[in-house]
Automatic annotation (TrEMBL):
Originating organism: Skermanella cutis
Keyword flag Nucleotide-binding: yes
Single annotated GO MF: ATP binding
Keywords, comma-separated and alphabetical: ATP-binding, Nucleotide-binding, Transport
Name of the protein described by the UniProt record: ABC transporter ATP-binding protein
Amino acid sequence: MTILLSARQVSKQFTGLLAVNQVDVDVAAGSVHGIIGPNGAGKTTFFNLVSGLLPPTSGTLTLDGHEITGAAPYERTRLGVARTFQNIRMFSDMTVVENVMTGMHTRLESSGLAALLRLPAFRREERAAKAKAMELLEFVRLADKAGLRSGDLSYGDQRRLEIARALAGNPRLLLLDEPAAGMNPTETRDLAALLRQVARRDITLLLVEHNMGFVMDLCDRITVLNFGRKIAEGTAREVRDDPAVIEAYLGTKVAERLAKAHGA
Ligand SMILES: Nc1ncnc2c1ncn2[C@@H]1O[C@H](COP(=O)(O)OP(=O)(O)OP(=O)(O)O)[C@@H](O)[C@H]1O
Ligand SMILES: [Mg+2]
């Protein structure tokens, strides 16, 4: 088993709060890996450390054996790390297809002057970029909405648009922060099918989700955080049956769902 992403003793201290506390995680190449835990457990903070939005207080992160702990977010993008956000971030006034094109980090090659004068080389590149963006929209089933203003899309469509934009950078590792949030059951089922297809494209998925059915169904391996610490890790069945996990979720809706999964 090849490890694509490895976190070793990674911590993030905010004033008076250890949001991520000495966490070790290994994400196997080609796997779908979930991170779960109650609200405030440190899941998004961990994503911010992996994507480079925040520097860790201590610990190391490696991608494919190369240390990326101090690398800037754009360097990590170039190395193949892409993400979506818990609170959708996109250019609402741009069209759907334009938003996907912003995700292509292989910047158009021709010079700014060529772009300004709209020389043939520039127009050729632009056409190729647009064709690729349309392919991705086809893939996430948004092709028919390519020309719409992104801000006018439904919530579920905006989440799929974010995925298309993240895929536009040809990532090896895609971080998804609550991709099913705000989706209805049908949209959630479609999203799971879509993410399985992404995984088949040799893209490793690391996802945070509160929807337990979704996580358990999709993930090969799950890491459970609570108050910044890793409290459990394993297959869906292993973490579901882990007393520390049940304890962490006690009093939450998830605990009820876990109990149901146990046939209680
Ligand atoms: N920039 C910040 N400055 C200070 N504290 C922060 C910052 N970001 C997060 N926190 C705190 O760190 C803890 C972990 O937050 P984080 O957003 O990582 O949790 P989470 O597991 O993603 O929760 P949720 O499921 O609600 O999204 C919380 O107590 C949060 O208030
Ligand atoms: Mg979060």
